[in-house]
Amino acid sequence: MPAMVRPPPAPPIADDPLEWRPQLGRQTSRPVQVSDPILEPDWDGVHVLAHFQLAAGGVPQVRLIDLDGEDATAIDPEVTEQIGQSIMATEAVIDGLLTEQALRSGIGAAIIHKPDVPRTALLMRRDVGLEIDARSVERAEGLAFVAVDILRLDGQNLLDLPLLERKRLLDGVIEQRHLVRVSPFTRPPIGPWLASWKSTGFKGAIVKAANSRYRPDSLTDEWTFVSKIHRR
To answer: Is 12 contained in some domain?
Structure first.
């Protein structure tokens, strides 16, 4: 009987969040069974972790660190500034992408959250108003930041929380703006969503286990990229 092949252990988690790198899913052409899956578009762009800190006097400070550990903060100063204005916390680490896709016509929701909550308020459940930003479907060039996950909030690591709980927290922390969005996600069936997203320019979708945890700088079998439907 052949020995069982076990996946390599995840690397130890660095104490300094600036040493973290995004967790990635597996690239595979074979169908993968993911427990209790959710789906989100496979955004194209520069994958970064946004490190946010509210400095003395309420001045937001933002650093963007890419997959290779390079500082990407200066790629688009306007986007970096809006990230600082959009995060309703005192400190946070957010996984996201700098991408042109969010500003192309028909891609990305043009809904902006307008919560009437002071920046320094503690995270709480709250009602938000919604309004439509028509500019988001008119501008076809430039970058926006699309947030997909939250790893740390106000001094607390969230890595061991289930993905759906992190998604809920992310939605409450980000005040969406023209250049800052939160990625949509949905439940299966995958077929109609994958076809719709691919028709608007996405390469495919990412299937993620709703209960999955986050391990910086690692690959996980609980997330996988899908570009076509496999039929039996």
So the answer is: no
Q: Phi and psi of 68, rounded to 5°?
A: -90, 5
**Domain encompassing residue 165:** 21-226
Residue 209 phi/psi, 5° resolution? -70, 130
Residue 101 main-chain phi, psi, to 5 deg: -60, -35
Q: What's at 169, amino acid-wise?
A: L
* CATH number, domain with residue 160: 3.30.470.30
Total domains, the chain: 1
pLDDT at 100: 94
Three-state SS across 112-135? EEECCCCCCCCCCCCCCEEEECHH
Measure the CA–CA gap between 182 and 171, rounded to whole angstroms: 7
Tell me, what DSSP letter sits at residue 187? Answer: P
pLDDT tens digits for range 24-81:
998 765 556 778 899 999 999 999 999 999 998 889 999 999 999 999 999 999 999 9
13 found inside a domain: no
Which one, of 179, 177, 175, 183, lies nearest residue 87 by Cα? 175
- In angstroms, the CA 110 to CA 132 distance is 6
